[in-house]
Amino acid sequence: MSYILLLLATLAWSFVGVLVKTASTMVDSAIISFARFFFGVIFLGISLYIRDGRLQIRMGMKWIWIGAIGKAANYTFENIALKIGYSYGNILVQPVQTVVLLLAAGLLFKEKISPRGWVAAAFCVAGVIVVGWNGTPLGELAEGSGLTTLLFTLAGIGAAVHVLSQRMLLKTMDNGNMNLSVFLLSTIIVAAPIPIQSHGFIGPVSAWAWSALVLLGIITGLSFFWFAEAIKRVPFAIVAIVGNCTVIFAIVWSYLFFRDPITIYVIGGTLIFVIGFLILSFAKPGHKEKPANTPAASSRIDNSVGT
Fold first, then answer.
1. Which residues of the chain are modeled with pLDDT < 70?
2. Contacts of 83 (CB under 8 A, 6+ apart)
């Protein structure tokens, strides 16, 4: 069962780009951000109530607000970029998040980053640059892939802020109620500008688009539980390898569903930052890059752990 939960979480995260792209045929990115949190809170709240018989929502803590702002930025920038770019583009969020977490570990928490950690970060940065460039002439980057890469970079920074908040909050809260509090506040944050900025329904109403919005909420609310349960029993080597297959699946789905062009630059850049993930995931015991800070484990503390 643990292996099934791990696979479910991995597959769920890999479908985010396709689902956002599908939902964007009906509503704008602001509504998608709101729906991801709104439905996520509903499904997560039901799950926690069934498990515990009560809900513990805490809004007065500093790190709840920091995490909510980070996660709101993550979804907002990611959804805008997915709408204007390719459905596999959010594979860039994870390596950016990994680099930011490494820098935070060294600068904020004064942890020593080993040479292996810096090598992993270099691979992640190089991979993001290659995928973002994608062979585009430099003069066109600002209008095309350069803009989406910037948006995904901002989304990755937001995701990293969310993970950092979790590191602080897990000292006093359980993972489920912590995410419920953060996601509820994030819902309010992304909902605030909707009356002024959102265009609401921008395309034909369809069952596929509505299903995509609901599935995005399920992924936000429940994939963390699937992953958290899986890593309790599945060997870490399997978690690292399967968890990092998310980016591969995302590329496959983008081609199958939308025929997004998969160039040699996308494939090469993806392989480069996956190598960085694996270098960090299999750091030698005793290094400061703990599993909770790796892309396969802690970066996924949140929703997805990232998504």
1. 138-145, 283-307
2. 20, 21, 24, 28, 29, 32
DSSP summary character for residue 201? B
Q: What is the pLDDT of residue 132?
A: 84
User: Concatenated DSSP letters for 237-295?
Assistant: HHHHHHHTTHHHHHHHHHHHHH-----HHHHHHHHHHHHHHHHHHTPPTTSS--GGGST
Distance CA 253, CA 99 (A): 26
- Is residue 299 in a domain? no
Q: How many CB atoms lie within 10 A of CB 211?
A: 13
Output the pLDDT for position 262. 92
Residue 302 belongs to a domain? no
Q: Give the contacts of 74 (CB within 8 A, at least 6 positions apart).
A: 93, 155, 156, 158, 159, 161, 162, 306
CA 251 and chain centroid, separation? 15
pLDDT at 296: 37
pLDDT for the residue numbered 1:
76
The model's pTM is 0.86
State the total domains in the chain: 1
> Residue type at 53?
G
pLDDT for position 297:
39
Q: What does the pLDDT read at residue 302?
A: 36
Residue ranges making up the domain that contains 153 = 1-282
Give the DSSP letter of residue 88: T
